[in-house]
Amino acid sequence: MDDSRDMFGDSPPWNDGEEDDAAPSAAELEAAGQSSMFGAPAPEPPEPQEVPEPTAAELEAAGQSAMFTAPAETSPTPAAASASPPAGTPSQPYRVLARKYRPQTFGELIGQEAMVQTLANAIKRDRLAHAFLMTGVRGVGKTSTARLIAKALNCIGLDGQGGPTIDPCGVCEPCRAIAEGRHIDVIEMDAASHTGVDDVREIIEAVRYAAVSARYKIYIIDEVHMLSRNAFNALLKTLEEPPAHVKFLFATTEVEKLPVTVLSRCQRFDLRRIPTPMLAEHFAKVCTNEGVGAEEEALAMVAAAAEGSVRDGLSILDQAIAHADLDGEGKVRAEKVRDMLGLSDKSVQRKLLGAILDGDGTQLLELVAHQFSLGVEPLAMMRGLMELAHRIAVAQVGGHADVPSAEEREAIEGWAKAMRAGQLHRLWQLLLKGHEEVKSAPDPLVAAQMALLRIMHASDMPDPGALVKKLEELASRAPAPDSTNGSGVAPSGAPSASAAAPSAVAPRWEALVDDVEHHGQPVAANVMRMQVRVVELAPGLLRYTQPPGFREDISAQLRAALSDATGERWQVERVNAEGVSTLVEQAEASKAADTQAVRSSPLVEATLAAFPGAELIEDDRPAAIGGGSRNWRR
C-alpha cells in the first residue's frame, strides 16, 4: 500500500525532501484561480504627476496626427522617441493662411468697425441682447465674430474676476478653451448637417440647465438658414424668451431665407464686404509676418479677385505664394499672379483700347490672338476692357485716376480728358453687350473679335446728342417755307392772317370762341371757328366777313352767343371787307406749313431721294401720354 499514500493525505513521493514553506498559501491559490478565469489584474497605476495642459497648437497637431498619420508598425524605443526630428522636418503640418490668421480679437477683425462699436457700447451699458444674427457674403468673418462674442461674454480676465468686455484677454481659461473649440458651455452647431426638428429639440432641452463653468451658455449655429421650417417653429419660443444664462449666435449668408419671426427676435449685424484697399493692406501685413516679399500690384490683384472676402483673398494669396519662383527671391510678382488668375495684362488692355479708339483693326486682332495664345480667356479680356472704361469714367468725374502704376495713371487721365462723356458711356454699353455675347457664344474667341470690331467701327460715330445738334444746324440754314405761296393767300385759298389784320386779333378771337363753347354753346362756337373772318374786334363790337361759300347771316346767333358768354351787349355787323382767316383756316395753314417744313428738312429730302416712292404718313391720334388734343406725327 505504499504507492497509495496520497489517498490518505500523505505527500506524493516526488515531494519527499521539499520544505513545507514552499506550498502556496490560500491567498495565492485564490489569486491564481482569478487570474486563470479573468486574466491578470492590471498593474497599479503610478502616482499621478502634474502634466502641463496642452496648447492649442499641440492639440491640433495631435488631432491631425490621429486623423491623417499612418500608425507605426513597431512602437519606437524610448531613445528614438526622445531623439529630436531631423533637420528640415516640420514639427506640425502646415496651416493655411485662412486658418492661421483668423482673428482672435475684435482689433484683428477688419472692416467691421460699426458692429464692434455697437457691441462695445452694449457691453458697457449692460444692454446685451439674447440673440445675435451675423449676415454677409462668404469670408467676411461671420463665424469668427460669433466666437469673438462668445469670448467677450465669458472672459474672466487675468485675475479671474473680470466681466464681459469687448477686449477679451485671450489668456484666461474660458478664452483659451473657446479659441481651441473645447469649451463645454460654447456649443457650435452646423445647421447644414443638423436641419431637423430633433436637433433643435436637443437645444431646447439643454437650455434649461445652467452653464457648467462659464458665465453664459452660448449656442453658435452656422448657416442657420438651412434649418427646416419645423425646426424654426420649434425654436421660436425658446428664442424669444430664453433663460438668462443662454445666448444664441446665428450666422448665415442667405438672410432672406430666414423667417421674419426669427429675424424679429434677433439683433442683426450686416457684415459688409471688405474694401479692396483695406484687403491689400491686410495681405501686405500677412506677407510681412510670413517673411514673403510681394509687389504692390500683385497684392492689388489678389484683393480685387477676393471680391471683398478675406478668406477668399487669403486662399488666393496662399496659392500665389506657392506659385512664386523658388529659384529667385521667392517674391510674389504681378505677372505670376496674373498668369495664375488668368487675367489680362493691363498694358495689353491699354493697347487694346488704343487700337479700338484709333480704328486699327489689324493690331486689335493681333492683340486678341496673342492674349488668347497666352491662356487669357476672351471673357477675361472683355472684363478687363470694361474695368478700364470704368476707371476712365471715374477719372473723368473725379479728375484723377486711383491706380498704383504711374504709367497706367497717365494713360487713364489722358483718355479721360480726350473722350467725351457720351462717347465713354456708349463704349461701356457696347462692351457690356459684347460681354453678354461672349458669355453665351459657342465660340467665345470669335464672339470677342466680332464684338471688339463692332466697338471699333462705332467709336467714331457721333453720339445722338451731337447728331441732333447737327440736324438742327442744317435745318436752320434751310430757307423758311412760304405758306402764302408768294401771293398773300394760304394754300387753302384763305388770305394770310399777317396780311389781313394785326396778329393780336387771332388770340383774342380764339379766347372768345373758347368762352362761348365753355358756356354750353358748342354749335355757335363751331360756327365762329368755321365762318367768321374777323375784320374788327373791340369790346362789345364785332365786324366780320364770311369765307366764300357761306351766305347765311349769322349775326343774330353770334350776338346772342357773345352776350351770354361775356355778360355784355354786343354790336355784331357783317361787312364786305378783308378779314383775318378763320380759326379753321389758320389751323390748316399751320398744318400745311409744318408739313412743308418737314419735307424741306435735309434728312427727309435725303430719304425721299433714296426712296422715290415714299410718302409721309400723318397720325392724327392724340398722344398716348399727357392727353389733350395735341397730335403727333410719326
From TrEMBL:
Could you give the subunit structure recorded for this chain? DNA polymerase III contains a core (composed of alpha, epsilon and theta chains) that associates with a tau subunit. This core dimerizes to form the POLIII' complex. PolIII' associates with the gamma complex (composed of gamma, delta, delta', psi and chi chains) and with the beta chain to form the complete DNA polymerase III complex.
Enzyme class label: transferase
Keywords per UniProt = ATP-binding, DNA replication, DNA-directed DNA polymerase, Metal-binding, Nucleotide-binding, Nucleotidyltransferase, Transferase, Zinc
Q: Which reaction does it catalyse?
A: DNA(n) + a 2'-deoxyribonucleoside 5'-triphosphate = DNA(n+1) + diphosphate
Q: Is Zinc set as a keyword in this record?
A: yes
Give the GO biological process terms: DNA-templated DNA replication
Q: Which InterPro entries match?
A: AAA+_ATPase, DNA_pol3_clamp-load_cplx_C, DNA_pol_III_gamma-3, DNA_pol_III_gamma/tau_C, DNA_pol_III_sug/sutau_N, DNA_Rep/Repair_Clamp_Loader, EF_hand_dom, HLD_clamp_pol_III_gamma_tau
Please report the stretch or stretches of sequence annotated as the EF-hand domain: 312-347
Biased composition regions of type Pro residues, renumbered to the chain: 42-51
Q: Which GO terms describe its molecular function?
A: ATP binding; calcium ion binding; DNA binding; DNA-directed DNA polymerase activity
Q: What is its EC number?
A: 2.7.7.7
> What's a Pfam family this protein contains?
DNA_pol3_gamma3
Please list where the region (Disordered) is annotated: 1-93, 477-501
Q: What is this protein called?
A: DNA polymerase III subunit gamma/tau
Give the record's family classification: Belongs to the DnaX/STICHEL family.
Q: Name one GO cellular component term.
A: DNA polymerase III complex
- Compositionally biased intervals (Low complexity): 23-32, 69-93, 486-501
Gene this protein is translated from: dnaX
Function in brief: DNA polymerase III is a complex, multichain enzyme responsible for most of the replicative synthesis in bacteria. This DNA polymerase also exhibits 3' to 5' exonuclease activity.
